[in-house]
Amino acid sequence: MSDARSRMIARAAREIAPGMVVNLGIGLPTKVLDHLAPDFPVCLHTENGLTGIGPTLPYDRADRNLIDAGGAYVSTIPGSAFFDSATSFALVRSGRLDLTMLGAFEVAQNGDLANWKIPGKFSPGVGGGLELAQKARRVVVVTTHTDRAGNPKLLAECALPLTAARCVSRIFTELAVVDVTPDGFALREIAEGTSVAEVAAATGARLHLPADEIPTF
Length: 217
Prior knowledge:
Blueprint: H1 3-13, E1 21-24, E2 43-46, E3 50-54, E4 75-82, H2 85-93, E5 99-102, E6 106-108, E7 113-114, H3 129-135, E8 139-142, E9 154-155, E10 168-172, E11 176-181, E12 184-190, H4 196-201, E13 207-208
Parallel strand pairs: 1-2, 1-5, 5-8, 6-9, 8-10, 12-13
Antiparallel strand pairs: 2-3, 3-4, 6-7, 10-11, 11-12
């Protein structure tokens, strides 16, 4: 993983407060676990039926039956609990998740999220992402600022099929921390060594800038 992505994920990890119940979505968000201290007081949830998730483990140390929703080998901690999918999604649908971190193909300036389908390419289905995006108390996105072709992922409107409408509160990328506000995208922090002009050029919508100095991460 590049230094820029590692710094992005470490910054996203600071969004998690002690005592939260948090779901880490498939992809980059699952890497957030590696930036939490082993004794950090958080209850991590995975939709395939586990709360209380410990560090990810290498193949030679892993329990082959113990994976998260993304297929990574994880471990348990004191207080971990196992349950079926019905119970797992009851936790989600009843609003018991304080925070979910999701990946994204596109995020619109009004908070719309597209992260499950690119037309013409195989997709296993929307899965738990739809439930998480709609029902978590706070939804943040961890993603690269542009796609592999260099096209912006932060847009005025999503062109891809939506996962959920008006659900995203904050976006973490390798370039910046951007909030979704009633006025659109607002730049909150910038990656060290990155200019505001670079972030604006990589963003496919107007980017509102703070009046004060922009913090770096």
